[in-house]
Amino acid sequence: MSVLTMQETIIQTNNVNVYYGEKHAVKNISMDIEKNSVTAFIGPSGCGKSTLLRSLNRMNDLVPSCRVEGSIIVDGIDINSSQVNIESLRQVVGMVFQRANPFFKSIYENIAFAPRFHGMTNKRDLDELVESSLRKAALWDEVKDRLRDSALSLSGGQQQRLCIARAIAMQPTILLLDEPASALDPISTMKIEELVMQLKDEYTIVIVTHNLHQAARISEKTAFFLMGELIEMDETGKIFTSPENEKTEAYISGRFG
Ligand SMILES: Nc1ncnc2c1ncn2[C@@H]1O[C@H](COP(=O)(O)OP(=O)(O)OP(=O)(O)O)[C@@H](O)[C@H]1O
């Protein structure tokens, strides 16, 4: 591997296997994810996309039956090492889920709560962080006059952008998005896609999506999974026009899945 490639790779998985009890959900996955890019995980339901995504910030630790083998290197650190602080890891590798899950608090507090908990107590600093996070999540103009309103008063699409702003406020380097637009209407989906394309200048983004058009529109690299295996990972344009593997071809042309 060249020095240049080393510098550009921010996540590297080596022979990663994930089990839920006896169930072998992710099989021997080795992949490199490039810094400041969007990587899409695609594949039929149950093929292990979310399981692999959740392994990248050790969310699977919360599932008692789950066991992860192999190494996952994030920014040069083996995240499964016993020395890794999980809280710090999840600050660096933020996550947004399929269903928006804002806190039952004001819009402002949704952003300010965790940074304050982690020691940022100066009000001006918090105000600035709230504004910059909401701006980066393309939500500021819609909420700047109602920051004290409940987050639950926002639309589903706004709530999802608020969750992205909340993750951004922790100053992550990587954002994991698990089907962030699948519960949203087409206009909100378009806003999330535009946002993802803007955010990649500053963050590395890995997105699980069932929407192949979405993967084609927003990602540079696409990884196709089938029954826990990584079948093919390549430039998105190549995956969608001339994939190497006939299973990829069958999936993207709608012949199964
Ligand atoms: N908490 C769990 N306990 C037991 N098995 C699980 C758990 N979560 C996922 N699985 C199993 O692991 C396999 C991979 O699931 P996963 O959710 O990662 O797939 P996916 O490709 O993300 O699916 P989908 O697109 O439907 O979200 C499936 O067979 C699923 O049933």
TrEMBL record:
Sorted alphabetically, which Pfam families does this protein's record hold?
A: ABC_tran (PF00005)
The entry's keywords: ATP-binding, Nucleotide-binding, Transport
Give start and end of each ABC transporter domain.
11-252
Tell me the InterPro entries matching this sequence. AAA+_ATPase (IPR003593), ABC_transporter-like_ATP-bd (IPR003439), ABC_transporter-like_CS (IPR017871), P-loop_NTPase (IPR027417), PstB-like (IPR005670)
Q: Domain of life of the organism in this record?
A: Bacteria
- Give an example GO cellular component term for this record: membrane
Could you give a single Gene Ontology term from the biological process aspect?
phosphate ion transmembrane transport
Keyword NADP carried by entry = no
Matching entries from NCBIfam families are given as: 3a0107s01c2
Q: What is this protein called in UniProt?
A: Phosphate ABC transporter ATP-binding protein
Species for this entry: Brevibacillus formosus
Q: What is the name of the gene encoding this protein?
A: pstB
